[in-house]
Every structure is written in C-alpha cells, then in structure tokens.
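Suppose a colleague, Dr. K., hands you the sequence of a protein chain of 83 amino acids and asks what its three-dimensional shape might be. Before reaching for any lab equipment, you can write down a predicted structure in token form. Begin with the sequence itself:
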Amino acid sequence: MTQVLLHYWAGARAAAGVEQESFTADDIATALELAADSRDARFAQILAGSTLLTDGRALHDDDRRRRLDTDVTVEVLPPFAGG
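The predicted structure, expressed as tokens, is then:
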C-alpha cells in the first residue's frame, strides 16, 4: 500500500481542521473515503465537490481508482465563490 497525502486548501482546510493528512491506501478514492468517514457529512460534501490535483494535473474518476505504485500528494481545492 502507498501513502496518499491530502493537502487541503481554503474551505477544505477549514472543514478538515488540518492543513494536510496522510492515509495508507491502494488508490486515491480510498484515501478520500477514509478522510470523509473521519468527519461529518459537510466535509464529505466538500470533498465530493472539490477539484483534485496531482503534479498540477486534474484528476478524473478513473484516475482516482487507479492503483498507486508510489506515494502521492493530492491537492484538494474546494469550489470557490464567484469562480
């Protein structure tokens, strides 16, 4: 299994109460599920609506379920007002 570091920005950071956290998971989707399950439903909604980036590239659904070979950092950017 690999380490998935979730780095939260703006409202996601405020809802999480931390800037970043790491989960051991086979894929990014599992790490997101673990993060959502560790908090309230509001945080899960924020995660569901967030844009996810790795290495500056937006992740799509198939990217989230792809088995990881190495540790990864995922930038979690929640929806921004007016954007």
